[in-house]
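Researcher: Going back to the complex we discussed earlier. I've cleaned up the inputs and rechecked each line, so this should be the final set. Can you rerun the prediction on the complete assembly and write out the structure?
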Amino acid sequence: MKYFKGLLLIVLSFYLLLYLFCSVNICYAKSPQIEQWGVFEITLKGPSSRNPFTDIQLSAVFTKNNLTIKTFGFYDGNGIYRIRFMPESTGEWHYITSSNCSELNEIHGNFIVIAPAKINHGPVRVQGMYSFSYADGTVYRPIGTTAYAWIHQGDKLAEQTLQTLAVSPFNKLRMTVFPKHYEWNNNEPALYPYTGTPPSIWDLKRFNPEFFQNLEHRVQQLGDLGIEADIILFHPYDKGHWGFDRMPPQADDLYLRYIIARLSAYHNVWWSIANEYDYLKEKKPSDWDRFFQIVQSNDPYGHLRSIHNGSIIYNNTLPWVSHASIQNGSAVEDYARAILYRDVYRKPVIFDEVKYEGNIPQRWGNISAQEMVKRFWEGTIAGTFVGHSECFLDSHDIIWWAKGGVLRGKSVERIAFLKKILEDSPSEGLEPIDKWQNCPFAGKRGYYYLGYFGESKPSEWLFSLYKAELKAGMKFKVEVIDTWNMTITPVDTVFELNKPSSYYVDDKNGRSVPLPSKPFIALRIRRIP
Amino acid sequence: MKYFKGLLLIVLSFYLLLYLFCSVNICYAKSPQIEQWGVFEITLKGPSSRNPFTDIQLSAVFTKNNLTIKTFGFYDGNGIYRIRFMPESTGEWHYITSSNCSELNEIHGNFIVIAPAKINHGPVRVQGMYSFSYADGTVYRPIGTTAYAWIHQGDKLAEQTLQTLAVSPFNKLRMTVFPKHYEWNNNEPALYPYTGTPPSIWDLKRFNPEFFQNLEHRVQQLGDLGIEADIILFHPYDKGHWGFDRMPPQADDLYLRYIIARLSAYHNVWWSIANEYDYLKEKKPSDWDRFFQIVQSNDPYGHLRSIHNGSIIYNNTLPWVSHASIQNGSAVEDYARAILYRDVYRKPVIFDEVKYEGNIPQRWGNISAQEMVKRFWEGTIAGTFVGHSECFLDSHDIIWWAKGGVLRGKSVERIAFLKKILEDSPSEGLEPIDKWQNCPFAGKRGYYYLGYFGESKPSEWLFSLYKAELKAGMKFKVEVIDTWNMTITPVDTVFELNKPSSYYVDDKNGRSVPLPSKPFIALRIRRIP
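Model: Rerun complete. Updated structure for the full complex:
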């Protein structure tokens, strides 16, 4: 028995020692864990002399079985170098660094990628031809808004903006990297992207890591809210004030490589090459092609890429454009206009600027809430996506469209209402039912039809659908949707199809759907299995 | 004196001999004359054994000073080979042939190119970004119609078609090379493009020269009337009946090279790669790219190239597409829809199919004359071009859209009225005055404004123009145009501009233009110098 006690003590001591040893030493070699589509970060100490932004080359190769992904590192100030990686699959990954600096070269390690948290569905991808889904297959229907320079307004306002977004319907936010200089935007930002002397003397070879840390923090916070960050890499709202709109090509390219190295591991990043790109008068058309190519070749994850127009639309058929990001002040007044872009590009179409709800004098910033909601619906039945923002004058010049803050308009809750309806629509997206024929319905032929009558005030709608995928005897239920008053009223009648004629098929008893003779009425028609 | 007489006789005899000699022999070397943009033709005798269409290679190089143009010859049956050339400048040209057949090789000669006849303005080119002009600089505004298979209906009907066209406003005709098999088009053609046994056994390596001689004759006749031949190289209205819609790639390519060799020297040729190309289900998308490239590389004159869609629009941004040839049943119901194609393609846009005036059951073939005329006007104020055709049922199935014959609709004379108005409009073409803002005016800012109110029936129009290129004190005269009743009524008032506001500028006395409260009213506003 004594002998047994002694043995027990020895064994326990061994385990204790093992535990202590492990916790202080060996555990460094134990693989860390990171969730799929999370940000895995390698932090390294290195030289801070000379110019680490340009003199040091740093990258890492990440491997899992026969999968190999190369990603670039970046200098984060104070002798700290980082390499970020977004693993796209679970399992054990290995990495090895490569650098022209021996301290940073050939550092390697392993890590384990586990299943993602519930909120993280991975990056958004194009699904089919005109729709989107997250990498995990969950459907993504963009309902975006714009607050261009919200990250430049200090922490207090930024936190308020996040609180506003948290309870809003929006799942995408258009935002600029560079600060904004414009009417109602005359405040200098707290941080600048380069070292130098504001407003316009910059060392374009030395970034300000703090600026980018703030940007990343905000992108991360958006991600935590399930909001995609549609990051605008260049914009014209500078006009030489800081000069970020007219840097030389080498500076542009260095900036792109730097921001891609920093940000591409965040799953909720979208790249918008520029806003109103054609208003950056110092750039040549070929610059935009080059920027797209730099983004495409440096971002290992293929985040979505677009470019937003002023009055000249970029050639969105080019292969490096993932989706069209359109500004057009009148296209979504009429679904038949909106459809045309779809046909031409054969890619998803997001109308990221359709004029803004508000009361500023500019004609692009004073449409009514009714008009904004109507544009969302017209865009929806065109099989496209529409973006929101607001321009309400404010005594402190805090306008949502530029700075964030709070939302004041009346469109937002109606957009939330639309979003709910869409959540219950076919995951493949809404296809125009009978395009080029003035048919105000989109959906999935044979199953689901969402129609919208805009400003017209019909008192009834003769039940009649385009005949494709339909046959006699099929049964449908109908709901009348008041898109402004946010009501959904089921119609008692079950409609049953007659034999199709040349183009259309009606209810077998020729019945109509009674409508309330009001504007902004929609119909949802679903097949009864 | 006697001596002198003798000398004179000798000299005269010498000249006489020279003349006789020249007239029978040397005059073959005297350079023939041909007008600029005319068809210069080299005719050669060669072998007719084996297969001259595939075994004999024949081309010629035409030179003038340091200009060199290579063009291909073709076999025209009965041992006759031809090489055609359209000289694009006056002066003395030289040619030398090249062939793998010694009889046809290294034949050379000269010819003189003189100024063209008054009717011949040369081929149509793209002018600027959205317009056309002839090679001699004369503005060309396409006003087209369609009679797909008119060349296949025998001489009598073809001659009637030409008589109809001669007194019509049309300056472009869409027409197919291959015959058409379709509803109301069940007659076999008089001629087939290949040797073989109708309807479907063909030697796709042996063309029928007679078929192509007829085609050329018709193209020439159209040219004599000042009408561009928009030649449709492939179409789906065959469905395997003859099988010209489903030939193997080698046959397609041989056919293209043959028809280009035959036809490209005709100045009024336009190449339409296909009609409703996406309905040719046996073709791959890459086939269309290849066809464009064959046409581009084999036609030495760069005639206009387009491709006409069914429901999927070809990528008209590709470099080998000279202009967009659009089918869309609803785009030109609304100028703001039509404008979108312009913006996207940044090329001239011709709506070659906008549904047809007529009374057939198909919904694409029974719009009213009012609707057709409206579509022409909406397309015009979008800065685009619209095409006409007619589908009126006929006891002998002679429908203009397919077979030609006579025109019965009521739109043609209104289209002629519009054409007259356009002849007096800026030669640069009509630019949308304030695009994406629901502004129904096109023209030349500061000088010329053509507005159109469609089906709305305004009783007045507040004189108010988009401010670009305008300043206070400028004076304008206004005419009210009834586009249906074809009247132009000058307004007595001279309007004088106020100071521009943010976007617009009104008359200094706030005056309006009285309008007749009728639909289809247009306004022409011209600056008084």
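Model: Worth noting: Chain B has a mean pLDDT of 95.
Researcher: Good, that matches what I expected from the previous run.
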